[in-house]
Amino acid sequence: MAFLQFPEGFQWGAATAAYQVEGAYNEDDRGLSIWDTFSHQPGMVERGETGDVACDHYHRFRDDIELMAHLGLGTYRFSVSWSRVQPFGYGAVNEKGLAFYDRLVDGLIEKGIQPAVTLYHWDLPQGLQDLGGWANRDTAERFAEYAALVYDRLGDRVTRWITLNEPIVFTLMGHLTGRMAPGIRDIGITARSIHHALLAHGRAVAAFRASGRTGEIGITNANTSYEPADDRPETQQAVELARDFDSRLFHGPVFGRGYPESVLRYYEAKDAPFPIEAGDLEAIAAPTDFLGLNLYSRARIEPAPDRGVGYRNAAPTLPLLPMGYEAAPHALGDFVRWVSKEYGNPRIYITENGVCDNAEPGPDGRIDDHVRVDLLGQFLAGLHGAIQKGADVRAYYQWSLMDNFEWAYGYRMRFGMVHTDFATLERTPKRSAAWYSEVIRRNGVEV
Ligand code: FCB
Questions:
Q1: Residue 198: which of 151, 144, 160, 266 has the closest Cα?
Q2: Bond preceding residue 182 cis, omega within 30 of 0
Q3: pLDDT level of residue 260 (50, 70, 90 thresholds)
Q4: Which atom of ligand 1 lies nearest, measured to the CA of 220?
Q5: What is the tens place of the pLDDT at every residue in 55-83?
Q6: Rg of the chain, C-alpha, whole Å
Q7: Domain count across the chain
Q8: Angle between helices 370-388 and 330-342 (to 10 degrees)
Q9: pLDDT (tens digit per residue) in 77-89
Q10: What is the pLDDT of residue 284?
């Protein structure tokens, strides 16, 4: 066993998202979002489950803050539901919605937990979807207006802002594969959505600077660590292509590098060009204060000359977790090293990392999620290694505080360190919660 000490001041947290935990979907004048529409459509979510109630965090947030304090969290990342604040996504502002986030922020601060607020975690107001959603350029402007409202209301206490959560996921899975809301399958709409989402990010950063609030703002991207399936030079080229279509497509424009040529060519060949207008790339490259990274796994890549993108995922070689991806805890350290080198050592917050482990209570009522504990320890060891090598990582948020609505999987996939009984809504800390408290207390991990 070795004890790996993290740098002094390193922050330990946990993350959730509005639609996955809040419930109260039609209370206090909340408007509907695309996830309400999608989950209520038969066949879209396993067993027809919805986020109508979820963890009922909207009513139980005070207990949940107690839980966080008990765990020793230094920071908590949550998202604001846009349609709670602006029921249609534009125009009228819902005071009751803002008041909820006010109470949540105050409650956290009272316990010494720093709030980190994500402005968009996939729940676009249905009113905006009806006008074309992310395919409509105006959505980027509406997002900046909504962001400004939230800065205005919470910015005296919230100093860490995340514009978008994982644009790659909500654009591609929402508009190309249709596995997520709004359930569209159209490559032209996908290209438009990608560009408008990034534009929305840039506009929201500009609105933050214009608000005069102090604090930091950045984007959270989803990441996979890509590894060559073999040592042929063409396999390395395939890895670079995978990075273009994933990492560089979203990090590149934010860091002022524009879109990768390979990606632009691919979409143009499909008659689905990115609708870039003069000034857009500059807007998207508005300087940010940190890079938010979510990472869960790796992928082995091999060349695929028969596919338009030129690469494919090779067969997995590591054990698979219930969500279908490999248990690959080395991926976090590897990716952090790669991204730090690629983009000039930015300040990084790991805004999500976690493990799907569906362990249920044993006869004694305890939940022994040892797979999660084991893998989280290894993830953190890799992260520690990357920090030792000079990566500027300042915070780590575990996904998730508690089991919640896992999108198209419904409640079947459990990522929480606190167990949620979805029949009674009772919360029970798992073994991983006790383990994480110890990590926090010692500011380091025993592996
Ligand atoms: C991420 C999402 C988050 C959660 C985890 C498991 O892609 O940001 O909401 O679903 O995966």
A1: 144
A2: yes
A3: very high
A4: 8
A5: 999 999 999 999 999 999 999 999 999 99
A6: 21
A7: 1
A8: 30
A9: 999 999 999 999 9
A10: 99
Which pLDDT value is given to residue 89?
Answer: 98
CATH number of 315's domain? 3.20.20.80
Could you write out the DSSP letters of every residue in 11-77? EEEEE--HHHH---TTSTTPPPBHHHHHHTSTTSSGGG--SSSTT-HHHHHHHHHHHHHHHT-SEEE
Please report the atom of ligand 1 found closest to the CA of residue 165.
8
Q: How far is the CA of 401 from the centre of ligand 1 (A)?
A: 12
59's tokens: 């009513």
* Polymer length in residues for the chain: 447
Could you say which of 22, 166, 302, 406 is catalytic?
166
State mean pLDDT over 145-164: 98
Mutate to test the pocket of ligand 1, among 224, 352, 412 (most ligand atoms within 8 A of CB): 352
DSSP assignment string, 169-221? HHHHHHHTS-SSTT----HHHHHHHHHHHHHHHHHHHHHHHHHT--SEEEEEE
- Looking at 22, 49, 227, 352, which residue is catalytic? 352
Range of the domain at 203: 3-446
| Residue 352 annotated in active site | yes
Please give the Cα distance from 77 to 114 (Å, whole number). Answer: 8
Q: Residue 218's pLDDT band (boundaries 50, 70, 90)?
A: very high
Q: Is 166 a catalytic residue?
A: yes
**How many whole angstroms from its chain centre is CA 252?**
18
Contact 101, 61 (CB under 8 A): no
CB neighbours (10 Å) of residue 291? 22
Angle between helices 431-442 and 370-388 (to 10 degrees): 20
